[in-house]
Design a protein that fits this description.
Number of domains: 3
Helix content: 40-55%
Largest sheet: 6 strands, antiparallel
Strand content: 15-25%
Order of helices and strands: HHEEEEEEHHHHEHEEHEEHEE
Mean pLDDT: 79
Number of helices: 9
Low-confidence stretches: 1-15, 420-425
Distance between the termini: 45 Å
């Protein structure tokens, strides 16, 4: 097992063994149990209070009813059969003023009875810890003070409230289980796209198929955005890998030709001493071509890695571009091309002089190579420079056949050449890629104008560069 795998296993072992769905469900169930238990406690408290108040009210009414019967009968109440001493679940007893019981009935399990007290309902318990309510009422019968005591058990009045509490206690576990199950199913369904993301990324990691994509759900939620973001990342990675493959293939192709020529010419020179001087010239030319190619590749590599830093100086652009055009006029003349200038004088800016010069030079070189009319007539290249607000705008136009519509987007690609004869001449197809790399560093814009915008009817490129460089 490799060190990377060991590290991954350690990370996994440190984490929770429960899935997010399980953890959410457990938390959801615990929360429901706590809420339900709190509600149950409140309900039981309310039931007890309601039961107590109901029992006390009922006991008071029973005592008052019996008091009325005794008052009606006078001293004969002791012998009156219509007075019941266990009446409506209440035990009734009659006492003298000194606390001596005259008649009545007492609960058997109560060993200690509270003293007579007419001010409030009293409480006591029996041997089974059942609570009893005790209510005393004062009654004057034929000049004598008597006390009527009623006693009622707290469980003596089991009604609809008790049934509701019992039903809630029975249904509570079922409700919690159903709610937890529902929460689990909903959470599992919500995280299904996440499992799809994990599965797809694992498969891509295993088989290296970067063309695979994560299916997007119908609901445009955060998971949808995450999946879309992953797919966008895969698009960029696939594009980078494909470009890297193409870049490697193109570099190999471009280097193969000069290397083959150098090898062949060196072999010929060793076999034929008289041919050595000519072979040396060819080898020198091809080595220079390889040097330019490698230099361009290093420039692009620095741009890709973000290590390309401009050296900003104050530049007289008008003077610089005149020198560039002057240096390329002889080469253009040999090919039957004339260069026209339209440069606004006195344009100065803070920029990288070398990058600016190479961008303009590459555009002029491209125009010299590919900008001649198809009928063989004289080629014309126009280089114009002007200010536009806080920008310097440089255009390089030709009167050639222009660039085909299907090639317009691809001309900025590395090694791409619209001309089918890829290996002819000294072109490697990196000129426009280098322009784009420099433009990115300088905060500039490089673009191919539409055909109707071209001054001479052929290809027309435009550079728009800030007069004042601002670090990106």
């Amino acid at each position: 097992m490799t060190g990377v795998e060991n590290n991954e296993n350690k990370v996994k072992n440190k984490g929770s063994s429960f899935s997010i769905t399980a953890r959410i469900t457990i938390w959801y169930a615990i929360f429901l149990v706590l809420i339900s238990a709190s509600l149950m406690g409140v309900l039981f408290h309310m039931y007890n209070e309601r039961g107590r108040m109901t029992a006390e009210t009922k006991l008071i009414k029973v005592v008052e009813e019996v008091s009325g019967l005794i008052s009606d009968d006078g001293d004969e109440f002791i012998f009156d059969d219509k007075i019941q001493y266990y009446f409506k679940e209440a035990y009734i007893s009659v006492y003298k003023r000194d606390g001596e019981m005259i008649v009545g009935r007492l609960p058997r399990k109560i060993n200690a009875f509270p003293p007579l007290n007419t001010e409030s309902v009293q409480n006591t318990t029996d041997s089974t810890d059942t609570e009893w309510y005790v209510y005393d009422a004062n009654l004057r019968v034929e000049g004598k003070d008597l006390y009527i005591r009623g006693m009622m058990s707290s469980v003596g009045d089991i009604g609809a409230s008790s049934f509701e509490v019992m039903m809630f206690a029975v249904l509570l576990p079922i409700i919690v289980l159903l709610a937890a199950l529902g929460g689990y199913l909903i959470t599992r369904q919500a995280f299904a796209p996440v499992r799809e993301i994990i599965t797809t990324t694992d498969e891509i990691s295993k088989d290296g198929d970067l063309s695979r994509r994560i299916p997007l759900g119908k609901s445009r939620d955060e998971i949808y955005e995450l999946s879309s973001s992953f797919n966008g990342m895969f698009d960029r990675i696939e594009d980078m890998v494909n470009r890297e493959k193409q870049f490697t293939s193109d570099v190999s192709h471009e280097l193969r030709t000069p290397i083959s020529i150098i090898r062949a010419q060196s072999e010929f020179a060793m076999e034929d001493k008289e041919y050595a001087e000519e072979a040396a010239g060819i080898i020198n030319r091809e080595s220079q071509r390889m040097g330019r190619l490698i230099s361009n590749l290093l420039t692009i590599a620095r741009s890709d890695s973000g290590r390309m830093t401009p050296e900003i100086t104050h530049v007289d652009v008008s003077e610089l571009l005149e020198e560039i055009v002057e240096a390329r006029t002889p080469a253009a003349g040999k090919g039957g091309t004339r260069i026209e200038l339209d440069i606004e004088p006195g344009i100065e800016m803070d920029t990288d002089e070398i990058m600016l010069a190479r961008m303009v030079a590459n555009l002029i070189d491209n125009a010299i190579k590919y900008g001649k009319p198809a009928d063989g007539s004289e080629g014309i290249i126009k280089v114009s420079v002007r200010r536009d607000g806080d920008l310097m705008v440089c255009r390089v136009s030709d009167n050639g056949k222009g660039i085909k519509e299907e090639d317009r987007e691809r001309i900025w690609e590395r090694f791409y050449q619209a001309d089918a004869a890829r290996t002819e001449g000294n072109s490697s197809g990196l000129g426009l890629s280098i322009i784009m790399a420099f433009a990115k560093v300088l905060g500039a814009e490089a673009r191919l104008l539409e055909k109707e915008e071209s001054e001479l009817g052929g290809a027309s490129f435009e550079l728009r560069i800030p007069l004042k460089y601002e670090e990106i």
